[in-house]
Design a protein that fits this description.
Elements lengths: L5 H12 L4 H21 L7 E3 L11 H8 L5 E9 L2 E7 L5 E3 L5 E3 L18 E5 L3 E3 L4 E2 L5 H9 L4 E6 L5 E2 L13 E3 L4 E3 L1
Parallel strand pairs: 1-2, 1-6, 6-9, 7-10, 9-11
Antiparallel strand pairs: 2-3, 4-5, 7-8, 11-12
Helix pairs in contact: 2-3
């Protein structure tokens, strides 16, 4: 039985973050990044070469190492979100020369010439696109708890969630048996942690 609200779960996880050192978070973020890289290498031909990830901020797994790997790879293209409207983002391709600005949430997003890569909108898409999803909490059923603004829910609703292979990334203390959810919430396909992978 779930006894906490979404708001209470968010605060619980934020409180847990304060118990861990910067070194612990850095080391475990790097372990998660290596697992993401291993996942790509193992499933090299199964998914699109377009990878959607995120620019990390406080209370999230730092995926900078993974992003750097993609940017330096000749095999993949890296896409990140950019807020374009209230509760809505689109994703744009970035490269080693992209310039950034900080949005109202403190998140870096591309600021100069935007490189459109609309494969994720292709209704005849043959290979799913991997999207790495941040979150404050996840559960064993694949539910994800974000910050409450609804950006990812709106993105999946607008772009057909089934086109994506959705990977949640989290530290051990961010995983719960069950989180409050509703029919609009989109479940992850797998959750990658520092020491294990949970396939949903």
């Amino acid at each position: 039985m779930i006894t906490l609200s979404k708001k209470e779960f968010r605060q619980l996880v934020k409180n847990e973050f304060t118990k861990f050192s910067i070194d612990y978070l850095k080391i475990n973020s790097e372990k998660i990044c290596r697992k993401l890289i291993d996942f790509l290498q193992i499933n090299k031909y199964q998914y699109s070469n377009n990878i959607i990830t995120y620019m990390p901020i406080k209370y999230e797994v730092d995926v900078s190492l993974f992003n750097k790997y993609i940017l330096n790879s000749a095999e993949y293209k890296l896409l990140v979100p950019k807020i374009i409207d209230a509760q809505k983002f689109e994703v744009f391709e970035i490269n080693k020369y992209t310039k950034y600005k900080t949005n109202k949430y403190g998140i870096l997003e591309p600021s100069d010439v935007l490189i459109e890569n609309k494969e994720y909108k292709d209704i005849e898409l043959r290979k799913k696109i991997i999207i790495i999803c941040p979150g404050l909490a996840f559960d064993l059923s694949g539910n994800r708890l974000g910050r409450g603004a609804g950006y990812y829910d709106n993105f999946f609703e607008s772009n057909n969630a089934e086109r994506f292979y959705k990977i949640g990334v989290c530290f051990d203390f961010m995983l719960f048996d069950a989180l409050p959810s509703n029919l609009r919430d989109v479940k992850m396909d797998c959750i990658i942690m520092s020491e294990k992978i949970i396939n949903i």
